[in-house]
Specification:
Rossmann fold; 2 domains; 4-stranded antiparallel β-sheet; globular
Length: about 230
């Protein structure tokens, strides 16, 4: 075996089965020490939400935390990657996007802790998801560059165009000098689609959400291996 870059979502991917998580932690700790592998968490959670999670979950410290669906990158000690923030800010007009969103009553703002400089987050019930096409059309009509990330049939994140989990992993992979073949990504939901789209090797967990499975079927049906899974 040789070193590799392990990139994983947290909720319902890495987190959810404590026994399995403990076994993985033990194995990866040894592999990390022996081969120099790196661990990256790629989550929709904000930094504060991530800190609440690790206060009661036994997670190994990552080499990199990709937070807020890819819009923020942190290193140990909560050191923010300012260069990535600068890239995220390009052509990003948060205030104007917020004005457009206010016209759509189906979108309910998530708590203030989840509203970030390069991310607006809302609750959107699945039965109202058709409003996304209207929102996208309005943003385009006003020349506002943004990407809509809808996941779990519940969460809508609006972020800068081309700034997501996938582009953040590409940035980290290049910074740490890992090849695409040395990178493994893992996820379960719609906000992980960008991870799989940007990387060659991926693990869609057994409890994955319908949107991710449909995306995989539409793009890669017949080109993946399936393994029997127990738990997460």
């Amino acid at each position: 075996m040789s070193k590799f870059l392990l990139v994983t979502d947290l909720d319902s991917t890495l987190v959810g089965d404590n026994d399995a998580l403990q076994r993985l932690n033990s194995w990866f700790k040894q592999h990390r020490q022996t081969y120099g592998s790196k661990l990256v968490y790629a989550t929709g959670r904000s930094l504060k939400s991530y800190e609440r999670l690790i206060s009661h979950t036994a997670l190994p410290e990552p080499d990199v935390l990709i937070a807020s669906v890819g819009t923020e990158i942190y290193y140990p000690g909560n050191e923010l990657d300012e260069n990535w923030s600068s890239l995220s800010s390009q052509n990003w007009d948060r205030a104007s996007i917020a004005v457009v969103v206010e016209q759509l009553s189906q979108l309910v703002a998530q708590p203030g802790s989840e509203q970030r400089p390069f991310k607006l987050s809302f609750v959107l019930d699945e039965e109202d998801a058709s409003v996304l096409s209207e929102l996208e059309a309005q943003l385009i009509a006003q020349g506002l560059e943004a990407e809509l990330i809808y996941s779990h049939g519940h969460d809508l994140d609006i972020v800068p165009r081309k700034i997501n989990k996938g582009s953040a992993v590409t940035y980290i992979r290049q910074a740490f000098k890992f090849t695409a073949e040395q990178t493994v990504v893992c996820g379960d939901s719609g906000n992980d689609i960008a991870l799989f789209a940007a990387n060659q090797i991926g693990i869609i967990v057994g409890n994955a959400r319908r949107k991710l499975l449909q995306w995989h079927q539409d793009n890669f049906e017949g080109n993946a291996q399936q393994f029997p899974l127990s738990g997460h």
